[in-house]
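Researcher: We plan to redesign the surface later, but first we want a full-length starting point. Tokens attached.
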């Protein structure tokens, strides 16, 4: 592998794959050698000239770079790895990386068994198709797998303008869980909040809360979650909690969400030692009622 300017192959041209392709095409540190999707491949020579291949995966030595990224859906990674491993190519010395947050490098075992070094590289960011390389700037990227390959990927992450963090398989799984809670489930929470607003004919919806949401995120960043908590529970306002539960008593989903999040807020408030224990218990009793 030419460490001065590695030849790169990307399989998968969706959200993350597309952003990586933009980066590799623009970077002076890497040569984008080939890209592949479900319908065809494209080879690039040193001048950038393109040659289209009517195949969804590389099938000859000259079609594969030294560093290969699988930016395909999670449920396709092992199958793609197995297909590549069984195509008769010499994989010894190749480096293969997948971009799943949920799966470890174990998903690439078929390629490990034929001589590749393998790893996973997952950007802790939300991507959509059409995003460019600047989406990586300033974010964290988790790395897991072969230690020598991780060193190569740490350089790549730095070139992306991002921050790398090397993890065990267990840590990677926990970080992905945390990412789902803090991003995907935040969207779900906002969606449920919007339903409550619109049911009361507050048709502006979530836009009414945008300044509050932005400031709360800023407070968490600056102060941490314990000191960022505000609102009724943080000040021991039992009456507000009781009124809120009354307002949503016919909405089982909102009621359960409010109770679960309220109990967590009580535990945070307890750490600050600012609300009398009696008031905390009153709120806990309200939130534990069936």
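Model: Full-length starting sequence:
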């Amino acid at each position: 592998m030419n460490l001065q300017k590695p030849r790169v192959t990307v399989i998968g041209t969706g959200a993350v794959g597309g952003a990586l392709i933009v980066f590799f095409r623009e970077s002076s540190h890497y040569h984008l050698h080939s890209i592949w999707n479900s319908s065809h491949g494209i080879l690039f020579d040193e001048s950038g000239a393109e040659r289209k291949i009517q195949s969804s995966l590389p099938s000859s030595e000259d079609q594969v770079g030294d560093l290969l990224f699988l930016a395909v859906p999670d449920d396709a990674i092992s199958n793609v790895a197995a297909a590549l491993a069984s195509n008769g190519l010499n994989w010894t010395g190749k480096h293969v990386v997948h971009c799943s947050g949920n799966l470890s490098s174990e998903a690439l075992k078929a390629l490990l068994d034929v001589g590749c070094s393998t790893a996973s590289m997952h950007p802790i960011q939300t991507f959509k198709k059409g995003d460019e390389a600047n989406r990586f700037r300033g974010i964290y990227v988790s790395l897991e797998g072969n230690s020598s390959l991780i060193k190569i990927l740490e350089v790549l992450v730095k070139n992306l303008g991002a921050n790398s963090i090397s993890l065990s398989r267990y840590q990677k799984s926990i970080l992905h869980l945390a990412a789902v809670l803090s991003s995907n489930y935040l969207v779900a929470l906002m969606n449920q909040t919007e339903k409550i607003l619109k049911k009361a004919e507050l048709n502006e919806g979530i836009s009414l809360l945008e300044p509050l949401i932005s400031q709360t995120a800023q407070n968490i960043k600056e102060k941490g979650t314990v000191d960022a908590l505000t609102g009724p529970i943080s000040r021991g306002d039992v009456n507000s909690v009781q009124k809120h539960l009354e307002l949503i008593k016919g909405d089982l989903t909102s009621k359960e969400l409010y109770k679960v999040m309220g109990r967590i807020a009580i535990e945070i408030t307890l750490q600050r030692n600012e609300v009398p224990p009696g008031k905390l218990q009153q709120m806990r009793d309200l939130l534990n009622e069936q």
